[in-house]
Predict the structure.
Amino acid sequence: MTRAITLHDVSKAYTRGVRVVDRLSLDIAPGEFLVLLGPSGCGKSTVLRMIAGLEEIDEGRLFLDGEYGNDLPPSDRDMAMVFQNFALYPSMTSRDNIGFPLRIEAPGTDPAPRVDATARMLGIEDLLDRFPAQLSGGERQRVAMGRAIARHPSAFLMDEPLSNLDAKLRNHLRAEISQLTRELGVTTVYVTHDQSEAMSLGDRVAVLRGGVLQQVGTPRAVYSLPNNVFVAAFIGTPRINLLRGLVRAPLDGAMTISLGKQFLRLPEPLSLDHQLLRVQQGREVIVGLRSEAVRIAKPAAARTGEVALTGLVEHLEFQGHEVLVHFNTGSSPAVVPELEAPRPSPERQARRRRREGGTVLERLRERAGALRAGSVATLDEPARPDGAPASVEPRVAGDLIVRTTPDIRLRHGMQVPLLVDLAHLFVFDQHGERICPNPDRLPGLEE
Ligand SMILES: Nc1ncnc2c1ncn2[C@@H]1O[C@H](COP(=O)(O)OP(=O)(O)OP(=O)(O)O)[C@@H](O)[C@H]1O
Ligand SMILES: [Mg+2]
């Protein structure tokens, strides 16, 4: 049997007034593989522990297969948890470690058949008589998985189970976990701060920031239609380019977005999507360009929907199969605070919430979810009338990263023509919420 898990407006505070999980609602279908993704300290483990019953739920409700489950003891939830730090008993062999929960749950029943079947499934038959100290990290993790699987639970709760392993083993076990949980068809909630792990494993990915759910959707949906700049920047490598822009929509001229010294001219007639930007006239916005939205090519080579920019080569990152070119285009990057400084203290979050929750209007907006956990982006300083921002954030190298093939010969300091595909243009408002693309205006964009 596999479980449906529903969280309804669930909150948790360890210190009074500081919610580390803030009104989280999630519907996890039976057999689904859901990944909880977010930076360190955003509340992922707390959510998992509340589902497991290891942490009390302060507010809100948990339903297991539709039944109210807040007060159900962990032992009655029929879930198996796999932790980051393996948590094997050092004085027991792998066989006893795997069989231990079975002996507790059904005393008097011989655990051997299930232990053997699980070991076969995980390919660890030869390791059954060894103690944890005689196993490698990857082997220990497999034994820990075995202990969870042998119980035939109705849900797996996995808290960064692979983060102690090296990259190669992580990839290998990742594939194994994916295959196993699918074969078993057991509902799985998997916690990670690694976006590529989340994207490759999850049926759906739930992105958390400061205890607040930002978005939940298929990996494809969160990548192609991020709700806000935080999700856009957290998902995808290289990280999406986020530039400060200024919308100009004169009544008698073409609509443009200034990017410091250069601008993007939106093609006429304006698409339905770009028409949404008209109301932003004179306002600062955040332009999001994933590396696939920009290519190195002369203006003459522009296809429909492409517009020209130029960039100064500041840095080249050779990756073997491709090169990441860092350009300076004269624009300034928008800052996503939690990503630059991954662990805001709860006290700082509380201060910020108090500050931002001040006026009636702000409280209403907060209720609507727009400002919970604070504004996603910072555009503290207004742009100067000429479109150039008042101050330029210090940056390591360039404001725009573009992918290219290694055969293109580029040198530091070269001025290079670029083409931006406006079909891949993201625009976010001052608070970091997405304006376009807008799926309501572009049917078919959402799966
Ligand atoms: N028992 C506790 N008492 C007080 N604060 C806690 C406790 N457990 C967690 N916290 C705080 O709650 C917040 C969320 O913690 P949590 O462990 O859920 O984060 P996480 O997303 O799992 O982070 P990581 O990726 O680092 O494991 C953090 O600010 C943490 O310091
Ligand atoms: Mg954690």
User: Anything to note?
Assistant: Confidence is low (pLDDT under 50) at residues 341-345, 356-371, 380-396. Residues 44-45, 159 surround magnesium ion (ligand 2) (CB under 6 Å). The longest helix spans residues 167-184. The chain has two domains: 5-231, 232-337+375-388+396-436.
